[in-house]
Specification:
two-stranded parallel sheet, alpha+beta, about 50 residues
Length: about 50
């Protein structure tokens, strides 16, 4: 799980997410507990 905290990380996070290497949770100011919990549940449901 990636949280973008600087503008120069946006493209990197998006590309890693698109490649299936990570889950990007987007910009830190837009992140909420529900999105974080949903991403964690996705990882736990499909750990491979």
């Amino acid at each position: 799980m990636l949280v973008v905290v600087a503008d120069n990380q946006r493209d990197i996070a998006a590309n890693l997410d698109a490649a299936g290497a990570a889950i990007s949770l987007g910009w830190h100011a837009d992140l909420d507990a529900a999105a974080l919990a949903a991403a964690a549940c996705r990882l736990l449901a499909a750990p491979g």
